[in-house]
């Protein structure tokens, strides 16, 4: 998997008692932050826009590979667009480019802990003076796409949700909890998430009054946005998907 170096700034600590922030002086500067998730303290990668804000924010959720450089680079892309981007680390420091290891890491991730981490990430962003508290969204790919949708289910104040080929929700009681507008991006050739399932989710959610936007790239399969996916990456469809993502966030988080 391709990697590139990224400059990191000072560690930032978060607790209910004290908040200490180190502002980025230029766009696309980043830092590690730590904050509480239940009784645990977790670290995440924070990319900050240039200026003082307040800014809209996005919780960025990694694939089954873990919080790697590709995810950090995407967080920086969002920062360039004017978002405080918090790339959360659901694996507690583990990352891999090996398929079997990634499968093991995903299977070993407790879902209740992941949801708790999503709530903690939202609370952390809400606590920051440079974040617009009513303009926080979520974005994820693959496993992270499924958790992005879970964020829409579990966080009633989430303002926007983007799901890139992530696991869908079929329980109408869970769909009923979604308040945020959702953009779903899927590959028409994805064998794990068939188009018929995507359309069924779209139909059910819309019938329940939810704001759902679905984009299906008919010639692409799973993980087509990630250039490290050498067998399935589509440069044209990836660029289009990013354009639609940024337009969606601009509409829902910057208005």
How would you explain this protein's 3D organization?
The structure is a single chain. Helix content is about 35%, strand content about 25%. The chain is globular and about 40 Å long. Residues about 1-25 have low confidence and may be disordered. The longest helix has 19 residues, at about 235-255. A hairpin with a 2-residue loop joins β2 (about 30-35) and β3. The chain contains 7 helices and 9 strands; from the N terminus they run ββββαβααβαβαβαβα. It has a 9-stranded mixed β-sheet, with helices on both faces. It is an alpha/beta fold.
How far is the N terminus from the C terminus?
A: 37 Å
Overall radius of gyration: 17 Å
| Number of strand elements | 9
Low-confidence regions = 1-27
- Our count of helices gives 7
Element order: H for helix, E for strand: EEEEHEHHEHEHEHEH
Structural class: alpha/beta
Mean pLDDT, rounded to whole units? 91
The strand line-up of the biggest sheet is 1-2-3-5-4-6-7-8-9
- The shape is globular
Strand content: 25-35%
């Amino acid at each position: 998997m391709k990697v590139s170096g990224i400059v990191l700034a000072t560690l930032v600590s978060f607790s209910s008692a004290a908040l200490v922030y180190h502002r980025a002086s230029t766009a696309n500067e980043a830092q590690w932050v730590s904050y509480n998730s239940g009784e645990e303290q977790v670290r995440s990668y924070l990319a900050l826009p240039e200026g003082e804000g307040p800014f809209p924010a996005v919780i960025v959720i990694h694939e089954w590979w873990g919080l790697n450089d590709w995810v950090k680079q995407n967080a920086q892309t969002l920062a360039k667009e004017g978002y405080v981007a918090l790339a959360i680390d659901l694996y507690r420091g583990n990352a891999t480019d090996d398929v079997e290891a990634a499968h093991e890491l995903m299977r070993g991730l407790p879902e209740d802990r992941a949801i708790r981490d999503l709530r903690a990430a939202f609370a952390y962003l809400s606590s920051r003076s440079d974040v617009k508290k009513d303009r926080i969204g979520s974005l994820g790919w693959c496993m992270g796409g499924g958790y992005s949708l879970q964020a829409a289910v579990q966080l009633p104040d989430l303002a926007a949700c983007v799901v890139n080929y992530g696991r869908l929700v079929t329980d109408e009681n869970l769909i009923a909890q979604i308040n945020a507008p959702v953009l779903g991006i899927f590959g028409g050739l994805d064998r794990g998430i068939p188009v018929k399932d995507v359309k069924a989710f779209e139909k059910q959610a819309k019938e329940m009054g939810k704001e759902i936007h679905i984009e299906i790239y008919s010639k692409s399969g799973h993980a087509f946005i990630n250039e490290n996916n050498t067998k399935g990456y589509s440069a044209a469809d990836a660029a289009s998907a990013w354009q639609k993502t940024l337009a969606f966030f601009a509409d829902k988080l910057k208005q």
